[in-house]
Amino acid sequence: MPDTNAARQGLDVVVRFHNTRDVERDQDDFTGPEPLRDWLVAEGLIGPSEQISRNDVARAVEFREALRALAFTNHGGPVDERTFGVLNRVTETAPLGIRFEPESARLLPRGTGIAGALA
Q1: Poorest-confidence range of 27-31, 61-65, 99-103?
Q2: Residue 93: predicted pLDDT
Q3: CA distances from residue 77 to 23, 26, 61, 70, 74 in whole angstroms, order as listed
């Protein structure tokens, strides 16, 4: 039987990531390297000694906005072709592996830092 709890936990992280921007209040949790690092550490996606740069913030925000655009498309919004370019660029540098178990298979990040966190 597949491990639906693990899948649900993975989806929950994606939802929390998606919700780090509140468009109605014009608030973004990722205003700089420190807030992004703190969020990633709290989510268990990076270790507390990992360093985050302004470029990492820009990459994470761009990735988050592409995921948001994809969700909007899924609910009937127009397709923005640039979204797929962003997602593909992130996945090129965010390596994933696969772990096979008797009842399931899981995708696992193979990188560290921001690349591993986005994977």
Answers
A1: 99-103
A2: 86
A3: 16, 21, 20, 9, 7
User: How far is residue 65's CA from residue 60's CA, in Å, rounded to a whole number?
Assistant: 9
Please answer whether residues 39 and 30 qualify as being in contact, where contact means their C-beta atoms are separated by less than 8 angstroms: yes
How many Cα atoms within 13 Å fall on the side-chain side of residue 58? 3
∠ Cα 6 111 34 (to 5°): 90
> Where would I find the beta strands (DSSP E) of 26-116?
27-28, 96-101, 104-109
Rounded Cα–Cα distance for residues 62 and 77 (Å): 19
- What are the C-alpha distances in Å from 8 to residues 4, 15, 22, 65? 6, 10, 23, 21
